[in-house]
């Protein structure tokens, strides 16, 4: 049901550690697998060059040659985590109701974090440089969820702001639950946060039932890419106007 987290949420999320029949994997893959497994078993404190090398069957110079240093190794593991998370997001079929689809995506996000707590915390660490491609693709999936709600006329605020609100609340809820002792973990916290965010960004009925300009601007902004009668310049100008009406543009 949309209002409940899956009962077996710990067992159904994708793990970046490969399972099943053994396959031939090179040193880089074995090092990443070993690091991910050590993270899952003992957290960051369990990850040392010696422990990774022993588990992966390589010498320390191989780790340094492939990843530079320990932080480089952690960055690579985080990128693999984003890839596994992206695979779990794209594997499911979208639901008919875009708001229920957002609920399902939220639950999947929380489930992944609870199933892979040390990896999730590593993925959430701020790091300089380019965003991993899988992380950027995951953000695009969330933006697409929000776009579907906007196209249905049920988004009450601008798409970018709505995306940031869902992202911030979902990450915060996952990290808060991870920090709780497992025997005292309150999954209703995630459900309450999810419904609070959904109430803040969506309406039950299409917002165009309200004659105000904000709802009309949000809905038209979502449909703008399909306005083929306009030139690229005209679309860009109209997008700026609609963003101002919807309250999403920065004041000048």
UniProtKB/TrEMBL annotation:
Cross-referenced SUPFAM superfamilies: Homeodomain-like (SSF46689)
UniProt signal peptide: none
Database matches in Gene3D superfamilies: Tetracycline Repressor, domain 2
Annotated DNA-binding residue span(s): 48-67
Keyword field contains Transcription: yes
Keywords associated with the record: DNA-binding, Transcription, Transcription regulation
Residue ranges occupied by any HTH tetR-type domain in the UniProt entry: 25-85
Full protein name: TetR/AcrR family transcriptional regulator
Species classification: Bacteria, Bacillati, Actinomycetota, Actinomycetes, Kitasatosporales
Keyword Transcription regulation: yes
Region (Disordered) residue spans: 1-25
Organism for this UniProt entry: Streptomyces physcomitrii
């Amino acid at each position: 049901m949309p209002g409940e987290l899956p009962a077996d949420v710990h067992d159904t999320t994708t793990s970046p550690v490969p399972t099943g029949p053994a396959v031939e994997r090179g040193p880089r893959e074995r090092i990443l697998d070993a690091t991910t497994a050590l993270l899952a078993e003992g957290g960051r404190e369990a990850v040392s060059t010696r422990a990774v090398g022993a588990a992966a069957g390589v010498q320390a110079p191989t780790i340094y040659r492939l990843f530079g240093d320990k932080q480089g190794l952690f960055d690579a593991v985080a990128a693999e985590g984003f890839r596994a998370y992206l695979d779990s997001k794209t594997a499911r079929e979208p639901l008919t109701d875009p708001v229920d689809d957002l609920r399902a995506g939220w639950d999947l996000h929380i489930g992944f974090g609870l199933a892979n707590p040390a990896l999730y915390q590593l993925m959430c660490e701020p790091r300089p440089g380019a965003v991993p491609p899988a992380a950027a693709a995951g953000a695009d999936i969330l933006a697409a969820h929000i776009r579907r709600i906007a196209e249905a006329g049920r988004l009450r605020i601008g798409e970018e702001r709505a995306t940031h609100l869902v992202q911030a609340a979902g990450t915060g809820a996952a990290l808060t639950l991870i920090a709780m002792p497992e025997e005292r973990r309150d999954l209703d916290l995630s459900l309450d946060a999810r419904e609070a965010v959904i109430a803040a960004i969506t309406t039950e009925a299409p917002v165009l039932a309200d004659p105000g300009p904000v709802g009309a601007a949000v809905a038209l902004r979502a449909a703008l890419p399909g306005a083929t009668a306009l030139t690229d310049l005209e679309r860009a100008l109209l997008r700026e106007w609609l963003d101002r009406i919807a309250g999403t543009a920065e004041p000048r």
